[in-house]
Design goal:
CATH topology of the largest domain in chain A: Rna Polymerase Sigma Factor, Chain: A
Strand order of the largest sheet of chain B: 13-15-16-19-20-23-24-26
Largest sheet of chain B: 8 strands, antiparallel, barrel
Strand content of chain A: under 5%
Distance between the termini of chain B: 97 Å
Helix content of chain A: 55-70%
Number of strands of chain B: 26
Structural class of chain A: mainly alpha
CATH superfamily of the largest domain in chain A: RNA polymerase sigma factor, region 2, helix turn helix motif
Oligomer: heterodimer
Number of strands of chain A: 0
Number of helices of chain B: 7
Number of domains of chain A: 2
Shape of chain A: globular
Largest sheet of chain A: none
């Protein structure tokens, strides 16, 4: 029955001492949060570590969650992003790439819209860490360049240039994918 | 250009929509392994998360109980029951209506007299530990008696622990003395009786006639009667050749001499003041999450403390003390944060923009209001600023500690060294944060203070407990007054700022001086 309950009801139960209800919350969000973690690291095992830490933090901070300020999922996503960034910073995984990756500019929007989530995830995962991090934060997770600069301790200009390069990189990868697709289908 | 921008927006939107869709189908590639949940579950159950107590608390509690036990041991030495009244002994009544306020010394060679006594002084002067040790060693079971008193022959295996030694100076006035020149010689003189007191045993000795004599007095009932039990020669007391004496028909005067007064009891009231240092232990999660903002804080806040104290000596080894202490300390913190200056939103008259933001402190976020004055023309576009904020927090706290103070050492030249162990009940009066400076790191803008002092109330635990250890040195100044210097270390048991993973505990140190006046009788 817990599976049909609203997030808010589940959270109230957990806070009142019914710890087992946390499993329902876990099952509800483990896929989406795992995909989020996979966007920040290519390594599946590392992504699982991120997910684990995310849920431990969610549990310990649960009483801080205020439903009036937004959906639980957004709040949980923020925690997951913090976990990922913390590890990236801690392990100095984030390095600003100065090399410019040039790719043909093309209108790949149509191609992109036909890719599956898994294929798009693989494209993100294959980017250099610097590109990937900025691209994830700005394009998908909705951070501003200023916020990214603060979190990654880089200049705002660096964040902007990394994003530009990330887009170009992705465009190049999509173009290649498209070429392969066209070749295989005559 | 517009086309490219639109295409880029569309490009971003596809990515955003793909990964922010609410329902992601469960597939193998996006399903974490079982180990994740197992580890999460293990973390929740083993860490306790909300209930974990730091190791130092256990260590401190251990120390607390050890010291409390030592305090109890020193304060309540109980005589061994084996050394109780000998079976052959005849109890002597303490109350002798025919000899009110008089004592009769007997069993004292050449001396048997009635002497009126007045207790005029009492003080502790002997090395109790040494004396106790000698008593144990010298009281050989079955040893011969040299007086007409009862035998110790039934005290086989006996041991005695002595917890107090009191000496009464006695103004001795002869009243119908019959006997020797020695007795006559002491008429009208002042002499002393020394009582070594345990819960069920008292030892009495007198240096009457220049000789030191001793004897046990065992209580049968605390206020009804006693048994005088002479003892063997005690070398430490320099018993001499005359042997012990008996004290019989001792007039028990509860108003001047009763068991309640035997233990030393003395009150003291004083004022204290000194330095207070707060060691702020901010959680790693809090500082970690704030680290992108270059959050830094001075770990130690310092200030002053002052108050009044009340002490009661329970005996020569142990006293209990309480106080009412007010303390005020200050600490600093700072961090960077982004600010956006929008010319469209500035006050057109004063060319400034007002801000209300949250400033991070070791005790949570405090509001601050300030202005940025524009000094130069910057055009019409908003300017991104990365400003450095510096603020100071001020904490006021009231503390009511309760200590047991243990004096494990012999008083040297009147100087007392005391170990104290106890607990503090604290109430935070207020924690306020004042913004000191904002550096916008831009020559076109200037910080202007308007209302920067705000009290932190959210997530502050007003009541908090601590455990304390201290060391004091007491120096006598003049009669009834002493000065003490002490250091007290306090281990905070509660989080003062508590917001889940974000919290701050405080350990404190007081370095204080106190002036105390003593009163009451020992």
């Amino acid at each position: 029955m817990s599976n049909n309950k609203l997030d808010r009801e589940l959270i109230e139960e957990i806070l009142s001492g019914k710890d087992h209800t946390f499993k329902v919350l876990y099952d509800r969000y483990k896929h989406s949060l795992f995909v989020l973690c996979l966007r920040y690291t290519k390594d599946r095992s590392t992504a699982e570590d991120y997910l684990q830490e995310t849920f431990v933090k969610i549990y310990s901070k649960l009483k801080q969650y205020d439903p009036e300020k937004g959906l639980f999922e957004f709040w949980a996503r923020r925690i997951a992003i913090n976990v990922c960034l913390e590890d990236i910073r801690k392990n100095s995984l984030y390095t600003v790439s100065l090399s410019v990756v040039e790719h043909e500019e093309a209108d790949q929007v149509d191609v992109l819209s036909h890719l599956s989530t898994k294929e798009m995830l693989e494209l993100i995962q294959n980017m250099p860490v610097g590109y990937k991090t900025v691209f994830n934060l700005y394009v998908i997770d909705g951070f501003s360049h200023k916020e990214i600069a603060e979190r990654l301790e880089i200049a705002i200009g660096t964040s902007k240039s990394q994003l530009l390069k990330a887009r170009k990189y992705l465009q190049g990868m999509i173009a290649k994918k498209n070429d392969v697709y066209n070749a295989s289908h005559g | 250009m517009t086309f490219i921008t639109l295409a880029m927006d569309r490009f971003d939107e596809i990515w955003r929509n793909k990964f922010q869709q609410e329902d992601i189908l469960a597939e193998k590639w996006n399903t974490p392994s079982e180990r994740v949940w197992n580890n999460v579950q293990e973390s929740l159950s083993t860490n306790g998360l909300r209930r974990r107590r730091p190791m130092f608390l256990l260590i401190f509690l251990f120390g607390f109980f050890i010291l409390s036990g030592a305090a109890y041991y020193f304060s309540s030495f109980k005589g061994d029951s084996h050394l109780g009244p000998a079976p052959n002994n005849t109890p002597f009544s303490l109350h002798d209506s025919q000899n009110d306020q008089k004592i009769v010394l007997s069993g004292f060679p050449g001396f048997d007299s009635e002497i009126e006594t007045t207790i005029i002084n009492k003080e502790v002067e002997y090395d109790q530990e040494k004396l106790a040790k000698s008593l144990v060693e010298e009281s050989e079971p079955g040893g011969p008696l040299r007086t007409n008193g009862p035998s110790l022959s039934d005290t086989e295996g006996s041991t005695a622990r002595i917890n107090n030694l009191l000496r009464w100076g006695i103004d001795m006035q002869s009243n119908g003395i019959n006997g020797s020149t020695e007795a006559t010689g002491m008429t009208g003189s002042k002499s002393e009786l020394t009582f070594i007191v345990s819960d069920d045993i008292e030892i009495i000795h007198s240096n009457l006639i220049g000789e030191l004599k001793s004897g046990f007095i065992s209580h049968i009932e605390s206020s009804a009667s006693i048994t005088a039990l002479p003892i063997r020669n005690i070398s430490y007391l320099d018993f001499g050749d005359s042997g012990p004496f008996l004290l019989k028909n001792f007039d028990w005067q509860p108003s001047t001499f009763n068991k309640g007064e035997v233990g030393s009891s003395k009150w003291g009231i004083g004022v204290l003041g000194g330095i207070s240092i707060w060691d702020q232990k901010v959680s790693g999660a809090y500082t970690g999450d704030l680290s992108p903002f270059n959050f830094n804080y001075r770990k130690r806040a310092s200030g002053w403390s002052g108050g009044i104290q009340l002490t009661r000596n329970l005996n020569d080894y142990l006293s209990i003390s309480t106080a009412l202490v007010y303390e005020k300390v200050q600490g600093n913190s700072g961090h960077s944060s982004s600010l956006l200056y929008s010319p469209h939103e500035e006050d057109p008259i004063h060319s400034n923009q007002g801000y209300e933001i949250g400033i991070a402190t070791p005790f949570g976020f405090a509001s601050a209001e300030f202005l940025l004055n524009r000094k130069e023309f910057i055009g019409q576009d908003p300017v991104d600023l990365l400003a450095d904020f510096e603020s100071k927090h001020s904490i006021e706290n009231i503390s009511i500690p309760i200590y047991f103070k243990i004096n494990p050492l012999v008083k040297t030249n009147g100087i007392n060294t005391l170990l104290s162990v106890g607990m503090g009940f604290n109430r935070v009066v207020s924690i306020t944060n004042s913004l000191i400076q904002v550096d916008p790191n831009h020559s076109a803008f200037e910080y202007q203070n308007i209302n920067t002092r705000f009290e932190l109330k959210d997530e502050i635990n007003l009541f908090h407990l601590d455990l304390r250890l201290g060391l004091d040195v007491e120096l006598p100044i003049i009669e009834h007054y002493d000065l003490s210097f002490g250091v007290t270390s306090m281990f905070g048991l509660d989080k003062i700022f508590d917001s889940g993973d974000y919290y701050t505990r405080v350990n404190r140190i007081w370095i204080q001086a106190a002036l105390r006046r003593s009163f009451g009788k020992k």
